[in-house]
Amino acid sequence: MVTVSDFESRAVTLGSSTVVESMQRKLYLKEAAAFKDVSRFMSDFSLIKFYTQADDFFSFFQELTAEGVDIRDLDAADSYAEFGQDLAVLERILENYRDILAGNGLTDMLFAPEEYELNSAYIESFDGFYLELEGYLTQFEI
Q1: Which residues are CB-contacts of 117 (< 8 A; sequence separation ≥ 6)?
Q2: For a FRET experiment, which of 6, 79, 93, 140 has its CA 20 to 30 Å from that of 85?
Q3: In which element (H, E) is residue 117 found?
Q4: Where are the alpha helices (DSSP H) in the chain?
Q5: Cα(105)–Cα(90) distance, rounded to whole angstroms?
Q6: In this predicted model, what pLDDT tens digit does every residue of 4-54 receive, in sequence order?
Q7: What's the pLDDT at 32?
Q8: How many CB atoms lie within 10 A of CB 58?
Q9: What is the Cα–Cα distance from 55 to 74, expressed in whole angstroms?
């Protein structure tokens, strides 16, 4: 018996890049957000304050990528029309973050829906699958 998390970690690879570690990812995100317009979201850009808010950014980005939604598509949706400038800032943070990671030979699991490769040998090592799922599956998980 294998947990879904363990199966996913072995069945899905992200190419030759190494997945960024938890602490590092927050430091890289802070670096990615180091431009003037970020003050729209936070006035205190200290490391401790940013560290506590980083998970909110990651959750937002993770939800978008897992559902296959481009951040630019939100700007076109009526319910997000008033947040155009905020979305542009978030898009820039995400692009900067991806560039910083790539420059360091790293990636983040939040980019898995866009960058993943299946480990066919691992998947084919099973005779079959029986899954008991609870909760909501994202478009990527489906």
Answers
A1: 12, 13, 14, 15
A2: 140
A3: strand 117-118
A4: 4-11, 22-32, 47-66, 71-76, 84-103, 112-115, 120-124
A5: 23
A6: 778 888 888 888 889 999 999 999 999 998 887 776 666 666 666 777 788
A7: 92
A8: 18
A9: 20
Query: DSSP letter at 105?
Result: T
Measured from the Cβ of residue 26, the count of other Cβ atoms closer than 10 Å reads 20
Q: Could you tell me the two tokens for 30?
A: 């802070």
10, two tokens:
């072995």
CA distance linking residue 55 with residue 120, whole number of Å: 32
56, two tokens = 């909110």
Q: Is there a contact between 104 and 6 (Cβ–Cβ < 8 Å)? A: no
pLDDT in tens, 100-115: 999 999 999 999 888 8
**Tens-place pLDDT, residues 58-115:** 999 999 999 998 888 887 776 766 777 888 888 999 999 999 999 999 999 999 888 8
